[in-house]
Design brief:
single chain, 436 residues, alpha/beta, FAD/NAD(P)-binding domain, Polyamine Oxidase, Chain A, domain 2, 3 domains, seven-stranded mixed sheet, 12 helices, 29% helix, disordered N terminus, binds flavin-adenine dinucleotide
């Protein structure tokens, strides 16, 4: 891997912007990667400080894709270990298992009966296609489950109301159990697990960053610390902030679409407007070290209620013991924000610690230290009702100039890690095909 060079080669070849999973995956078919950071991995990166390792928000691998599994079991493999998910929800002062709709046991009786009544009521709903997430939630789960979990959680996580969201991102992401499963989960703790990540894999060492590291292998050509600043589609070149220039035949960009569009010279105003209208949320991570080896058995816990700052907390030690120093545990609290729902980054750590005490996750006098914070500007793509139309305008324009925009923020889709890897590969294959 090549980290810096004095002069960038004149590469009338494929230039790839971004060394996250999509860019690294694309580069397996050739091309040169330019990455703005000093390391690879992008959103699938980890921070290692003082014996602690924290990912950029919870990251677990739950793919069934044979190509991706094959890549990650090759010679550079990241040493993945299998885990059985332990995920919980803290609401109404108690912990219940995830997902909420199949595990109401333990909640106050009034809430359980509201949830059951509402769910049974959905059997009378006519089968139809819902055009917004709020209607879908009411239609699929009923009022009890909607009001006691999905709607408040959705507002907190997405930072916008569920009515503003479409339903085309749902597929397997929100599991819908059968009535007998909902009843079983209301009467006792049920053993059955739901959702695509009920079994997952996680690297033994090095955090989730081990996955991009394995993907890059030894052969990828990567220039680190090169932030693309301007793209000239006519002369087919990218200028980087340090003033260097790289020429390309094809451009595969995995950087966020709004950023790419902003840097293209002479972009039509219609495309500019469409890109500026793409919406996303951001996630601020507060990474804490906590004295004591047996803090909690969960992998993660959701917090749907507004009085708690995080939408989710996790315990990295339970993913891999290598993420903490001996005798210590750690907690990562993830807080969602956007222009619509801003947070105060300065006071958020104190609030998180107070929340952890109030939810009895840590004791009032337990030794806690702030290891660091991490601010993920582009975290989740918001599927609002204008997204498809805006994307269409942007993608049509880029295709005309053989620019392939790939990955989670290049396709502007809710892609998981395996899907980002496949997206990068698809872009590279398409570029190859169009060149012939
Ligand atoms: C909080 C959170 C939790 C997640 N949890 C999971 C999970 O549990 N399981 C799962 O499968 N997936 C998860 N994901 C999704 C997963 O992280 C992504 O699908 C994947 O990492 C996206 O890879 P990418 O290459 O498409 O984008 P990125 O990783 O964002 O790569 C883009 C790269 O471009 C670089 N770049 C940006 N601008 C420039 C520029 N101007 N010039 C040069 N380089 C630039 C960036 O630094 C970055 O390295 C999660 C995502 C988030 C945000």
């Amino acid at each position: 891997m090549n980290s810096t060079m004095n002069d960038l080669p004149v590469a009338r070849d494929t230039v790839i912007l971004g060394a996250g999973l999509a860019g690294l995956s694309a580069s397996r078919r050739g091309g040169v990667i330019y990455e703005k950071e000093r390391g690879i991995g992008g959103t699938c990166g980890s921070l290692s400080i003082g014996g602690y390792t924290f990912d950029k928000g919870i990251h677990v691998l739950h793919t069934k894709n044979k190509y991706v599994l094959g890549l990650l079991s090759g010679r550079e493999r990241p040493g993945l270990e299998k885990r059985k998910r332990s995920a919980w929800i803290y609401s109404h002062g108690v912990l219940t298992k995830y997902p909420f709709q199949a595990n109401t046991f333990g909640l106050p009786r009034r809430i359980i009966s509201e949830c059951l009544e509402g769910f049974i009521g959905t059997f009378n709903n006519p089968r139809r296609k819902y055009d917004n997430y709020e209607d879908w939630i009411y239609g699929a789960f009923g009022k009890g489950i909607a009001d006691n979990f999905y709607l408040p959680y959705s507002r907190k996580f997405w930072t916008v109301g569920a009515r503003e969201l479409t339903t085309d991102w749902l597929d397997v992401r929100v599991p819908r159990p059968r009535i007998e499963q909902v009843i079983a989960g209301a009467l006792s703790i049920q053993k059955e697990e739901f959702g695509p990540n009920s079994l997952f894999q996680y690297p033994r060492r090095g955090g989730i960053q081990s996955i991009p590291q394995a993907l890059a292998g030894k052969n990828a050509i990567i220039h680190l610390g090169e932030k693309a600043a301007r793209v000239d589609l006519v002369n087919r070149s990218v200028v980087f902030t340090g003033g260097r220039k790289a020429y390309f035949r094809d451009l595969i960009s995995t950087i966020p679409l709004p950023e790419l569009v902003k840097m293209i010279d002479g972009i039509p105003s219609q495309v500019k407007t469409a890109a500026a209208a793409l919406r996303y949320n951001s996630v601020f991570c507060v990474n804490l070290g906590v004295k004591g080896a047996n803090l909690n058995k969960a992998h993660w816990i959701y917090f749907p209620e507004d009085k708690f700052a995080p939408f989710r907390i996790s315990f990295p030690r339970n993913f891999s013991a290598s993420t903490v120093p001996k005798g210590w545990s750690s907690i990562q609290a993830e807080i969602s924000y956007s222009q619509k729902r801003p947070i105060s980054k300065r006071s958020i750590t104190e609030k998180v610690v107070a929340d952890l005490i109030s939810a009895r996750i840590i004791k009032p006098r337990q030794k806690v230290k702030l290891i660091g914070t991490d601010d993920i500007k582009y975290a989740y793509v918001i599927y609002d009702h204008q997204r498809v139309r805006n994307l269409d305008i942007i993608q049509k324009f880029l295709r005309r100039y053989s620019v392939y925009s790939a990955g989670r923020y290049g396709e502007w889709k809710y892609l998981w890690m395996d899907e980002a890897i496949l997206s990068g590969r698809k872009a590279a294959m398409e570029a190859d095909r169009n060149r012939q």
